[in-house]
Amino acid sequence: MAIRCIGKVVDSYKVRAKQSKGNIDTARRFRLKGAVPFDCRMLTFDMEKQRLSILTLEGREEISFKVGESGRVALQHQKGECDLFFSRGAFFLNVCCQVPVEEKIKCEDVIGVDLGICQLATTSDGRSFDGKEIQTVHQRNQAARDGLQKKGTRAAKRKLKKRSGREKRFKKNENHRISKIIVEQAKRTGRGIALEDLSGIRNRQRVSKKLRSRFSGWSFNQLRAFISYKAEIAGVPVFLVPPAYTSQRCNECDHIERRNRKTQNEFQCMKCGHTDHADFNAAKNIKLLGCRQSASGRVVGFIRQ
Ligand SMILES: [Zn+2]
């Protein structure tokens, strides 16, 4: 334990020295309940009994712990150090695990996934995940936030922080749920997944003011990241396709025009009259690009003639 303690202090100074390019001007301070690193000699898991044995200053102690289903799988591949930390009235362990990834499946077909505003995700199979619950929570919080912000007291600030934390966790759960369903579907049907390469969506997408509040309340990047890493573990290939014209191109006749997209939800082709849900049309376009990329090994996008 003493060695760990020294190690932590040294690490802290090392990091500080790196940040300030060699000058350490102030003494580092440590909180009583700051995170403590443990290695495998000091902390072992008994998965059957769901208990862990941990070295404390008073000797070894056996403590029961809780872990979710995916965490249980990951724990079988524990590697390296863990961090013990205290948050919201309970102790947590951050455990490093090196989960082996499955061999990439060879796919001929691809599921296109459009990440949207009204529908959080729409697949080219026609499945969509709406964000109604998320929006309700967000709007309720927004109203409460406005009220609390006006107050501006310390108690109000604390409440604000608590609320935003709860909302974040709720969103994260939703993102886990949606990404799991999509990746499982791809795996089961032996297909890859195509997503738009949306590195700059916040700046680029044109959205009404009313939608913008909802929009910024949703973490697309998290959903995309969750799909990507779950796919990686499951051996499902992911194709990132250029987002240009995916929402303006008619999936029936290849015609590209901005006016094809009537509203956030409606798509109606100006040339052939084909109508569709805008997100579903986009998902099918994304699928097409994903299939082309899968077949040619090259990134291809739509070009306006
Ligand atoms: Zn058309």
UniProtKB/TrEMBL annotation:
GO terms for biological process: DNA recombination; transposition. Residues 220-286 form the Cas12f1-like TNB domain. It comes from the Bacteria. Residues 140-171 are annotated as: Disordered. Residues 151-171 have a biased composition (Basic residues). Keywords: DNA recombination, DNA-binding, Transposition. One of its GO terms (molecular function) is DNA binding. The keyword DNA-binding applies. In the C-terminal section; belongs to the transposase 35 family. This is Transposase, IS605 OrfB family, central region.
